[in-house]
Design goal:
about 180 residues, alpha/beta, 4-stranded mixed sheet, 8 strands
Length: about 180
């Protein structure tokens, strides 16, 4: 199976409606392909949890996301919006959410990494040999780089690459999701 991506963007004020609208746009662009996973990027004024919930309901895909300092698609930069990117691909997924980045990034890395060996075994039975860790962190916590280092140390034996980014809050430096 090939990998296909599609995006949608909405400026509807209500996060649930915006997440639904953006996910519906992305689904139309996939033209019948079923997404396996996706990302929700939302302005800090939106309820990220509701936007993710709506995108998950529409797409039936595993979703992760964070708040931003601007939402970007192939159509350019937007503000005060919710963006959904869906990915249709034959993949083995394992999504986790954990808290405690500021207090103990080493412990957090262990929590996030737990269960990976089982996922690797499942992936190998499906002939999925390339592993990627997508890590979205709190951009306002100074220990984000330490978390990346800790995850890197744990993943060395697994052969996975690490990609991702840090959540923003439009430069307010108050709080991210």
């Amino acid at each position: 199976m090939r990998t296909t991506t599609a995006t949608g963007s909405s400026t509807i004020a209500a996060a649930m409606a915006a997440g639904r609208d953006a996910a519906q746009q992305a689904m139309r662009k996939l033209r019948g392909e079923n997404p396996a996973y996706g990302f929700v990027f939302a302005s800090p004024g939106a309820d990220l949890g509701l936007a993710i919930e709506a995108a998950r309901e529409v797409s039936r895909a595993e979703m992760i996301g964070c708040t931003t300092a601007g939402e970007i698609t192939e159509r350019g930069l937007a503000h005060q919006s919710v963006v959904v990117m869906l990915v249709a691909a034959d993949v083995t997924l394992h999504a986790k959410y954990a808290v405690g980045l500021k207090a103990d990034p080493g412990k957090l890395a262990g929590e996030l990494w737990s269960g990976t060996s089982e996922v690797k075994k499942t992936a190998l039975t499906r002939d999925h040999r390339h592993l990627t860790t997508v890590l979205l962190t709190d951009g306002l916590v100074p220990t984000g780089e330490k978390l990346v280092g800790e995850v890197y140390e744990q993943r060395v034996q697994s052969g996975t690459q690490i990609v991702g980014g840090a959540a923003g809050d439009e430069g307010r430096f108050a709080a991210t999701s």
